[in-house]
Every structure is written in C-alpha cells, then in structure tokens.
Amino acid sequence: MIRVEELSFKYTGAKEYSLKNINLKVKKGEFLGILGASGSGKSTLCLTFNGIIPHSIKGEFNGNVFVQGYNTKEASVAELSKLVGLVLQNPDSQLFNMTVEEEVAFSLENLGLDVEEIRRRVYWSLKITGLEGLENEFPPNLSGGQKQRLVIASVLAMKPQILVLDEPTSQLDPLGREQVLSLITLLNKEQSITIILVEHNTEYLFDFADRLIVLDKGELVMEGKPREVFEEAGFLRNLGIKIPTSVKIGAELKKKGLLERAALNDRELVDAIRTFLKG
Ligand SMILES: Nc1ncnc2c1ncn2[C@@H]1O[C@H](COP(=O)(O)OP(=O)(O)OP(=O)(O)O)[C@@H](O)[C@H]1O
Ligand SMILES: [Mg+2]
C-alpha cells in the first residue's frame, strides 16, 4: 500500500532535516501506530503520504514515497486524496459547509460522480460514522466527537483505502475520544481500511495497532509489534513517550524479578497479580 524509501525532508528555511532516511512499508489492511515526542516528525511524515509534502509544502525532499504504486512526487494531491484520506487534530479547521450532508457531499462534487452515487456515498459515510439523522445539522453545533466523525465521514466518502489520522482525538473530551477511536477500530477491522494513526493514547495503540514505529528527531528508531515496542519501556520513556499505566507497573514488577515481561495490558496485569497472590 505504502512504501517509503530513504525519505529525508527539510522544510524551506529550516536548519535541520525533519525526516531523516526513513524506510517503511505499510501493508494493505494494516493498522500502523506512530509514536514520538513533540517535534519528532510525526506530522511531517503524515503529510508525505498524500503528497501535501512536497507539492503544497516545499522543502528539500530526498527519497521516494509510493502509494499503491504511485510515486507521490509525480501524482497530484487531488489524485492521491482518492487513495489516502487525511484527518487532522482540529475538526473545526476541516469543516466549512452549512449542513452535515453538504459537508460530506462537498468532497464528492469535484469527482464527477453522478447524483445517485453521491447520494449513496453520503448515506454510507454518515451511517458508518454514526451520524445518520444529523444530515441537516449545522456542523459547528455538533459535539467535538461528532465533528471529528464528520471529518472522517467526508474523507471516507472518497472511498480511500488508506486513512491517515494525525492526533484526531487530542482536542476531544473522553466521550468524543472513545467514539472516534471505536470508529477507527471498526473501519480497520470491518472495512479493511489501512490505518496510520498518530495517537498519544498508547493504551489504545497497545490493544489495536498491528505495528508501531517510533520517531526521534526525524529518525525511525524503533519498529515492531506493540508488545515488542512497549517491552522497551525505559527506552520509550527517555524519548518522552507516554507508556500505558499497565506497562509502567509491569516494568517495575519485571525489575523486581516478579514478571518476565513488562508489556501487559490491564487485563493481563490483573491476571498476573492474581496469580502471584495465589502463589
Ligand atoms: N512548516 C514548518 N516549517 C519549518 N519547520 C517545521 C514546520 N513544521 C514543522 N517543522 C519542524 O519539523 C520538526 C518536526 O515537526 P512535526 O510537526 O512533524 O513534529 P510532530 O512529531 O508532529 O510534533 P507534535 O507532537 O508537536 O505534533 C520540528 O522540529 C518542527 O519544528
Ligand atoms: Mg504533530
């Protein structure tokens, strides 16, 4: 689906490269989580997947990004947007129509689809994001979680196979966050949409991501299954990455020789504690 080869990028006017020699492959249907401290290059990497970098945001771009075989240097952002949907932090900056329905239809109107197909896609997108019944609402009146799901609906209406989400829940309250994260899981597991997610809720990534990559100062410094990555709790903490509470406790217990593995989720940690309380 995505192949990144020796990718380096420096913003115009910046001193340092924001991405350094990144190599990465993302398979069809995979759920990839991106971890890294502030400024490590997570957003910059996300912007290379649909060609915003290098087409709209300029700089020194070396290496290649291929999306479903297209080299992003050669394809346009409009073409790439049909393959890769991008969802950002702040839903307000991505909503500008008068009704929920128009918001979703808007992105489709330039695709040259017939009216029936547009109607079908709007209906499907609103249904899957749980927004049916709100077609005539004014988007600014929605809750934070509904707004972000509306952004996702309007991106999904383009039928992309890949969804890239850059901290989509960071401005939401706990309920909104929960709604958006369950939607992401559903899109990945039931619609087989490839997901690339930047998210600070590492508990969620632990449970649902297939693979994680860790960025540090523009470099890809670690890659693996969540369980492998979180086993290195000390390394992640030194990079300024939030570690699931169960893994923090697990790491302490491992240090004391009470556990063999630190990377446990809540349920596994409770089971482990029960076992040594019994023993
Ligand atoms: N438009 C820009 N012009 C110049 N430098 C930039 C620009 N955008 C980001 N940078 C720099 O690139 C580096 C990576 O930034 P990026 O926004 O990708 O990090 P991030 O991991 O997404 O951080 P955060 O967690 O704060 O969102 C930082 O050093 C940042 O200052
Ligand atoms: Mg960012």
Automatic annotation (TrEMBL):
Gene3D superfamilies assigned: P-loop containing nucleotide triphosphate hydrolases
Gene Ontology terms, MF aspect: ATP binding; ATP hydrolysis activity; ATPase-coupled transmembrane transporter activity
Keywords on record: ATP-binding, Cell membrane, Membrane, Nucleotide-binding, Translocase, Transport
InterPro entries: AAA+_ATPase, ABC_transporter-like_ATP-bd, ABC_transporter-like_CS, ABC_transpr_CbiO/EcfA_su, ECF_ABC_transporter_ATP-bd, P-loop_NTPase
CDD domains, A to Z: ABC_cobalt_CbiO_domain1
Listed GO CC annotations: ATP-binding cassette (ABC) transporter complex
Main subcellular location of this protein, as a coarse class: membrane
Superkingdom of the organism of origin: Archaea
Presence of keyword ATP-binding: yes
Subcellular location: Cell membrane
Domain ABC transporter: 2-242
PROSITE patterns per UniProt: ABC_TRANSPORTER_1, ABC_TRANSPORTER_2
Protein family membership: Belongs to the ABC transporter superfamily.
Function: Probably part of an ABC transporter complex. Responsible for energy coupling to the transport system.
Name of the protein this chain belongs to: Putative ABC transporter ATP-binding protein
The organism of origin for this protein: Thermococcus sibiricus
